[in-house]
Task: structure prediction
Amino acid sequence: MDNNFDHNNTYQQNTSQQTTVSQQPVVVNELETNKDMYAITSLILGILGLVFSWCSFIPLIICIIGIVLGIKGMVKTKQHTGIALAGVITSAIGLALGSIFIILFFLV
Result:
């Protein structure tokens, strides 16, 4: 039988072994989410630039904006986050493909 129970079946707590755990409220940092918006926007613009790279000059403008926002997101967070880096890479690839398609369009 457990030593912490008395004869009336009530539980007696051993106060020497109790630990109190205080829960802290979870705070979402608003600045970090705003910095990540540059990275997310850069990634979206990079993907759009890749998809529409065969079109005229619009993907070139989209990709340049994507590169600028991706670099701005990396500079503001002072680290190379994966999303911002992916946005810069996809925007650069879209810019290169768009430039190649424009050059081929004018040569042919």
